[in-house]
Fold this protein.
Amino acid sequence: MRVPKGKWIVISCLILMVTPAVATVSFSQFTNPYPPMNNSYGPIGFTFAGDGFVGSIYNSGTMSLYKTDLTGATVQVFALSVSIPGGAYVEHFVAASLGQAGFPAYDIYVAASNEIIHINHAGTTSNVFTSGLTGNVRGILFDGVGTFSHNMIVATTAGYIYEVTSTGSFTLLANIGADTEGMDIASPGFGPYAGQLLTGSEGTGLINAISATGVVTPLNTTHPLLGAENVFAVPAHLGTNPLDGYYASSFQYTGGTGGNVLFAAASQFSSYLGGLIVSSETLHTVTAMTWNGSGFTYTQIGQFPANHQPEDGIFLTGLQINPQTGYLEICKTSCLLHPVTGQFTFTATNDTYTSGPISIPVNACSGPIETPAGTVTVNELVRLGIDVTAISAFGYNQYGFRENRLQSDNLPFRTANVTVVPGDSSLETVVTFTNCQAPPGELKVCKVAGPGVTVGTYFTFRALPLSGGPPRIFNVPAGPAPSGYCVQVATYPVGTQVSIVEAPPAGVFVSNVDVSPPDRKGTQTGNGVIVAIDTGITEATFTDASCGRGDNIVQNGSFETGDFTAWSTGGNFASSTVVSGPYYRYSGAEDGQFYAVLGPVGSDGSLSQTFATTPGQPYIVCYWLNAVGDHPSDFSGYWDGSPFVSLTDPTTGNMWQRFVYGTFTGTGSDTLTFSFRDDPGFIALDNVSVRPQ
C-alpha cells in the first residue's frame, strides 16, 4: 500500500541484545565559553565552521553566539550585531552549511523559535532563512551523504521533520509525533537503515529511521533510550587528526552555572564503526547502538561529568578539518577477449600538481598517491595497437558510502577527470583503466564548401602521425554541406594521434572542423586539428569560408572614424559606443584601433547600414565578435529584414571570432542590420564587411 510522503510509520521487530556498561569513552574539556559569554546561561549548540567552531548559549538577543579557533582557544562573541529572537524558547541549535546543493560553505544557521536565522561566515550579516515551521526548531542537520539531495533537515518540538532547500523553501518529510532533537545520517554499517535519517526523541526515548520517501521506522521500541538528546553516526573510517572526535555542549544544571564543551577523541569509538551514539539528557550517559546482523546491540560506553547534562554536539572528522589533499590510486586491467600484458605508464596532473610517470603492470594498482584535493586528470600514455575500452573511478566517502568519482573521460585520448576528496587514504579515489588489443583504425577526411567557397574547389592536406612516420599529402574537393566530399587517407594503429593540416588558398579560411566520433577530436589550432585513431573510422570534416572578393561595400566597418559614422542607430541604443584599447573584459580591437561595444539594458538596440549592390550578385557577410556569455544578452543579424543569425547569451571565450554568412542576393539596394542587448556588460563588434562572392 502506498501513502503520501511523511505518513508511513513502520514498527520494527528486531532481535535485541543489551551488553553491560563498558565505560570506554572519557571526556576532556575542549573549550569554556565563559568569559566572554554570560555564565548564567549554559551552552546549547555547537558546530564546526571551517576555521573554528561556533556555539550558542541558553539565551536570546545579542551575546547568544560564540566562536573559538580550532583548538578551542580564543573564545570570542560571534555575530555581536545579530539579535537572535526566541521569546520563551531560548535553546538555539546551530549548524554550519557544507557548500552543497546551493548552500554556501560554513555559513551559520541558528534555530530561533519556529524560524531559522542565516548568518554569513564572518558573522557580519544575517537574514531570516526560513520561517513558519510547525513547532520550535530543535535540530538542524546538513545532509552530507546525499540521501536528501544534500539539503538541510530540520526537526521541531512538534515532531515535524522538514527538508529545506538553499532558497529556504521547505517540505514536510515526516511527522514523528514527538519532540525531536538529535539527527544524523546512518553509516553503511547500520544494517538495512544505512543512509537513512536517524532521529532521537528525549521524551519517548525512541530512535527513528526515516527514508528518503518519508517512511518512519521506530528502531528501539523494546529498548527505549530515555532522554535521547544527541545522536551521531560513527563514520565508517576514523581519521588520525587529533581534532577528530565527539564534541558535546555540556550544560551544568546544579552546583554552579554555565558549563563547557567536552571532547572525546575519535579513537575511543573504533569499536563502534558504523554505529549510532546516543547521549541521554536524563541519565547523562553515552550509549552505542550497533547493528549485529539481525538486530541492535546497546552498550553504555560513557558518562557525562556529575551535575552536567549533554546538549547539542557533533562528530568531527579529518575530512572536514583539513580539506587540502587527498589520495588517488590507479589500477590497470585487461579485457578477456583480446587481453593485454606488460607495463602501462600514467600521469596524474592538475593546475598545481604533476605526478611524473607512474608505471603499473596489468592487473595491479599503483598504491595510494597523495594529490591535491579537487579535480585531477589521469592520462595513460599511448601503446599503439592497444585500445582503452573503459575507465571507472569510485571511492568511499567519510560515511562509508561508495560514490562515483568519475567526472568525465575520453577513451580515444586515454584521459579521465576524477574527483579526489580531501582526507586520508581510506577516502582515496580508485581509477581503473581497462585495455584491449585492437585492429588498426581508418582515417577519413572530408571537405565542405562554406559561404564564399565554390563546390569542386580542391584543397591540399597533410596528415602526420605524431608517434613518427612519413606524412601523407593529399587533395580533397569541397562538396556541398553538410557532408561534403571525402577521401580515405590511411589506416593507423589504434592510439595513434594524427595531425591534419589544411593549406587553404588565398582569401579562404578554415571556419570549422568537426570530428566523428566527437571524443576523438583533440586540439584545434588555425587550419589544423589533432585526432586520435580508434577502432573503425575516424572522420575529420573541414569547412572553409571566404569573406568574398573585391571591395568591402560596408562603410566604416571597423569603426575607425572613432564613432558610428555611416551607420544608423535604432532602438535602445544606450550604453553603446566606439572605444579603443582595453574596455570591459576586452583587450582591444580586432582590426585597426577602434571597435564597437554594445550594451543596451532591458531591450535591444540596433545598428544598420544600407548600401548599393549589383542585382543578382551573391554577397558574403563577415564580421568579428567578442562576447563572454553575459546573461541576459543577445545578438542577431538581418539581411533586408530576414534573420541569418540569432544568438542568446553569446560567448566567444573572450577572444575575437570571425562569423561568415551567405550567400545573399543583391537587389540593387540592400540593408545589413544587427540587433543586440547585454544587461550586465557589453558585446564587442569589429571588422564588418560585405563583399561579392
